[in-house]
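Collaboration report, partner site 2.

Our partner group contributed sequences for two proteins of shared interest, and the home lab folded both. The records are reproduced in the order in which they were received, starting with the first partner submission.
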Amino acid sequence: MPKDTINQSFLVFNCEPASADMVTDMDIHEIKRVADSSNIDPARTCLNRVLFGNPAGPKAALADFYKAGVKMPSRRARLPYLRIVLGASANFFRPDAPGQIGTWDAARLEAWLDVATTALKREFGADLVHVSLHLDEDTPHLHVLVAPTYLRKPRAVDRRRKGEADAAFAARKAKVAASPGVRTVGRASHPTLRLEGSFEVLRQALGRTFAALGIHPGYPRTQDDPKPKTTRKWVNEEAARLKARHAELDAAFIEIADLKDAAVLEARAQERARADLIIAETVSGLQKRVADLEAIIANYLRPLKLLLKDAAAERGLLRRIRQALPDVPDKKIKEVRAALERVDYQTYREGQFGQMQRAQDAETLRPYRRAVAGQEQIEHDGTSTSNKMPTDRTMGIGPDEDSGPA
């Protein structure tokens, strides 16, 4: 393609022979607008319109075509129809934004439609069956159905019937020869479309018509050009590609699920290990705190235990004094206890006052010492020790240290 035609608008012309099944596919494509095999935007489907033929679709238009008196093709006709897609380059319909798919310049579109419909009617005449405009895909285009017809005449008379006279035979031959024929669908019998290269001739004819709009007819195909891909082949290839892609996605999703499960298991194991470490550290910390608290409590209780021990000893001493002196009043018992404590710890003053206190304590303790001495004598004589009274020494009381007269 020459470099100076890069911005040139070109004619889009795809013409192919079609069977009845292909007409059905065309009908489905026009009626059921789903984005499976084309870039269809359902929001713009309402903009599509039928320019020629039955609005119900190509099949209905073809049925009307036959109802008008056209004879259907013979059973041996494999591809009696023509399917055509007619359009133009995107830069013709939207010169300011050719990459903005799904948009068009309204004035350019209407001008193109006027030229297209005029050209189709001129080229195909009464054989034009259906023309529809699609605006819900990337670029505006036409779908065209053509039923090429020819005049099918009776077989020529070349044999005389048995017993037929010359005049009757001649009349019969003349009648057949004068018959105009029956209009019948059949591309292979069409006077021009059955010829080799007829599609290229048709493209050039349409190209000359669209030249008024600045649309180039394109360049003829050569033997080296690849064979154009049919819509069916493209759909099948896309279906195979999508199937393979779906298989890849399914495998990826399975792998992702496996990786997710493995990650969850690893995260749970790490969480359990971290929880065990936290629990161990917490238990160790609590054990240390308990040990520290036990030490604090022990230190705190030690003087209390000593006090309790002293209090128990004090109660025991008072009890023994009461047992030794059962008839002495409580006040005298306290005096005896105080005297015993002073004797035990020698908490006397120096001098005369101290001597006076010693003498007084000796007098106070004399009845108690006698009771204790008597009790010891009983034990010495072999009396049961169940009522044994402790001596002054067992009670932590030292020997009598009277410094004064008894």
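Second partner submission, folded after the first:
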Amino acid sequence: MKFDPDDWRDIDLRRVDLKRLPILWIIPVLLLVFAAFTCVYTVQAESEGVVLRFGKYVRNAEPGLRFKLPFGIEEVQMVPVKRQLKQEFGFSTAGATNPNQFSSEQKLERGMVTGDLNAATVEWIIQYRIREPEAYLFKVRNPDSTLRDISESVMRTVVGDRTVDEVITVGRQEIEANALLQLQALVDKFELGLSIDQVQLKNVNPPQAVQRSFNEVNQAQQEREQLINVANGEYNKVVPRASGEAEQMIQGAEGYALKRVNEAEGDVARFNAVFTEYLKAPKVTKQRIYIETMRQIVPNLGKKVILDDDASQLLPMLQLSAAASK
């Protein structure tokens, strides 16, 4: 049956309610406004949006003003990819905004057994970021809870391979490094989409019942090490100095002996030379030796008066007036 336009002539316009016509325009306007509100969204700077179309992953949305299909056709889940998240084990910080940051079973988490079958209470934290939003949302159900379980398993394994002394004192950095590597490997294996930034040990102590005794033993060991270091310091200060002084005395004695030997050899050589000349001319050599000897002695005699054997008067030669004036 076709509609004939001429049939409009048969319509009684008086029966049409013109007051209801604006309502027909309001509904499309409302639909447009609702569509505008539902197709515009904003992704914060520290987040990344994961767009779902009828529940299926479609794309990732970078920070800024973005658009999507309205009327619930596409939904957006915000994932804080640039925020560093934290989980605490064995303790809890007040005011935490992350519901997975701590657990209600803190006593069970921190109680561990070391490799030498000693008990220890270990508290630690992990810091991580969301690296792959799609894997974080869809690969594993409740990835934060899974991360807690993996972290506790890794820490118990690492602590169980070491003695209680290593766990409490010297092995902390090695434990943190090994736990970080093993935890990241398991996170990648389970496709959690996370990146582990740091594993840090906080309070590591023996059980409360033996903590006082352990502290006393630890203090005694520290005092022992301190005394050994002080003794080594005194040894390193005294022994090298004594060795240096002994070496200096030895070198001084060797130098003095070499000097005396050289002087004696020089005297012998000089004597032999003089004796050779003496054999050639004894009288001249004696005269020369006498003159050289007097040249060394006379300057040390002070004031001198030399008289001839035939001199008869001595007083005019003494210059008593000049001596009295001095």
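Feedback sent to the partner group on the second submission included the following. The chain has a mean pLDDT of 83. Residues 10 and 199 are 85 Å apart (CA to CA).
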